[in-house]
Amino acid sequence: MSGPIYFYKYVVTPQVFFKSKYTYALVNLKPLVPGHVLIVPLRTQVVRLSDLTPDESTDYFNTLQLIQKFISWHFKADSLNIAIQDGPEAGQTVPHLHTHIIPRYRTNNIGDQIYDKLDDWRFQSWDERRSEYLAIGGREGRKKLAKPDDQRIARSQEEMAQEAMELERQLAEFTVTSA
Ligand code: AMP
């Protein structure tokens, strides 16, 4: 893989386990469950789903299908959540389009509570969240507000790089076995 790959302003190259012409898949800094990965367009200007060009959309959806099949196979998932928080009011915290792929299981199933976890709601009400969003300058202001790395409980770079290498290897195996 050539050149640094960005998720918003973060260089995530060692976390990337798949890259196509316009899209990549990466392991998560704070996965909700093992196998919680993200699908992201390479172009950092793509903040919302509607910002994708037609060619990028096709590539994005093809990548999504490939990786959801792979994650389901590799993590032996019974089902998957495939989720986009499209805009800050919908819970988007990183202003660069990303689709969550989250493996789900019959046992220990927390049902729709997964969305509460995904949302990580920090504001007391919708109105407060909305006024805060507008007060910091809407979409442009939100872009400057990504939480600093030191305020997050994050996995180590080594752990993520190791997982990305393993997933890349397993994906090659999956591609051969499912051909
Ligand atoms: P959302 O709330 O839909 O914007 O989701 C943001 C997702 O990005 C969460 O699952 C975070 O754990 C994940 N995330 C944030 N920063 C990084 C990063 N540097 N590398 C990988 N995942 C990240």
UniProtKB/TrEMBL annotation:
Does the UniProt entry include the keyword Ligase? no
One function term, GO molecular function aspect:
bis(5'-adenosyl)-triphosphatase activity
Positions of short motif Histidine triad motif = 96-100
Catalyzes what? P(1),P(3)-bis(5'-adenosyl) triphosphate + H2O = AMP + ADP + 2 H(+)
Which CDD domains did the record assign? FHIT (cd01275)
For this protein, what is the EC number?
3.6.1.29
Q: Where is the active site?
A: 98
- What is the protein name for this chain? Bis(5'-adenosyl)-triphosphatase
